[in-house]
Amino acid sequence: MSVEAHIHVDLDDDSSGAGSPWPVDARPGRPCRVAYPTISRIENGHDDLRRDTLMKIAAALGKRLVPTFEARTMIRLADIGVPRDTDEPDWTRLRSFADQIALHPEWTAAAIADAPSSGSPLMSNLLAAIAEKLADDSGIQRPGWTKEVAPLESPWEAPATPQRRATNAENTPAQFAARRITLAERAIWRDRELIST
Q: Within 10 Å of residue 17's Cβ, how many Cβ atoms?
């Protein structure tokens, strides 16, 4: 089981009246003492929020920091599906799943073990290709359920311009191509440094 620390501000005292999460001058006489450029860099994702910065913000609000530890819920590939009346994958959930595995590669085998239930041939093949790629990349055995998913009868490719189609074809993982899916790897897998913990 993986455990992540989440720090939050205890809201027992709500006397500040400030609704902003970044109050530079939330309360008269209790300045935040955090420079605006620092706040701006944090808000824009160019800098990480440090503990000392968070403590200054909490103090300005008259709050206290309370660290808590929560078990992180693992997303399983079997939990990702599409409504039966559409063939459109939930790209956000697929990317979240891929991000999770990038952050917790030790979860790979458990996350891909169970067969997803999908009435959609495209989605079944997409999930099987993802499972096969993750297994191959991790050097583990592919889950048995992927063998039961027959490749698509007709090729599928993500809608794109002709130039983008050529780029997608060049960057399609072998596991996807074997299932007649043309989809660039970056459509699901992001660079590790772009994934927030």
A: 9
Q: How far apart are CA 22 and CA 27, in angstroms?
A: 12
Look at the block and give the residue holding tokens 């008259």.
62
Contact 111, 2 (CB under 8 A): no
Q: What is the pLDDT along the chain (197 residues), one digit of tens a residue?
A: 333 444 444 434 444 444 444 444 444 445 677 887 887 787 777 777 788 888 887 777 788 877 777 666 888 988 886 555 666 788 888 999 999 999 899 999 999 999 888 668 888 999 999 999 999 999 999 999 999 999 999 999 988 888 899 999 999 999 999 999 999 999 999 887 777 65
C-alpha to C-alpha distance for 60 and 18, rounded to whole angstroms:
10
Residue 82: count of CB within 10 angstroms of its CB: 20
Q: Helix, strand, or coil here: 175?
A: helix
Amino acid letter for position 79: D
